[in-house]
Design a protein that fits this description.
- By secondary structure, this protein is an all-beta fold.
- Helices cover 0% and strands 53% of the residues.
- The protein is built from no helices and 17 strands.
- 30% of the residues are buried.
Length: 173
């Protein structure tokens, strides 16, 4: 059986390129909730089985990814590329668990922005660990930064919204 069979509805999310390894990692969302590794031009293997991941992003420190985990312990975690151990970073907001975390992006200073699709929220986790809600828009999904890290983009339902980001990582209207 092929690892990736698009004829069966495989849904790939969170691509991240590991330049030092020359591979692309992807979350296979509905095909076993695992992380796949694509080595160009076409070799595919399982990098981490049963990971329950969705969004993936390079961590500011070398040798790690930041990942969105959907269950158990939905939230943001750190994945060591060396030993594939997973360390939870944030699993709740003000004592309330996340509903369906979806995507994330990381600034060079370590600020993490991530979405909770079903809750319709965009969160900001500051480098000191402080967690705030940036916005509450229905079906908050994909999130990205401009190359200069001064603009944050959020795909929410059928629209894309942009927010200015200050030098300290705080988000404007």
């Amino acid at each position: 059986e092929p690892l990736v069979d698009h004829g069966k509805g495989t849904f790939l999310e969170g691509p991240v390129w590991l330049a030092d390894r020359g591979v692309l990692l992807l979350s296979e969302w509905n095909g076993g909730h695992r992380i796949l590794q694509l080595t160009p031009p076409a070799a595919v293997e399982v990098f981490l089985p049963a990971s329950r991941t969705n969004g993936l992003a390079l961590a500011p420190e070398a040798g790690a990814l930041l990942i969105i985990t959907e269950a158990p312990g939905a939230g943001v975690a750190r994945l060591s590329l060396a030993d594939k151990s997973v360390t939870p970073l944030v699993q709740a907001y003000e004592g309330q668990p996340f509903v369906q975390p979806n995507d994330l992006v990381v600034r060079a200073d370590g600020t993490i922005f991530f979405t909770d699709y079903q809750a319709g929220r965009l969160y900001r986790r500051a480098p000191d660990g402080a967690l705030t809600i940036v916005s509450s828009l229905a079906k908050s999904n994909g999130v990205a930064l401009s190359p200069d890290e001064r603009t944050l983009y959020l795909n929410a339902d059928t629209r894309t919204v942009k927010y200015p980001i200050a030098a300290d990582g705080t988000v404007g209207a």
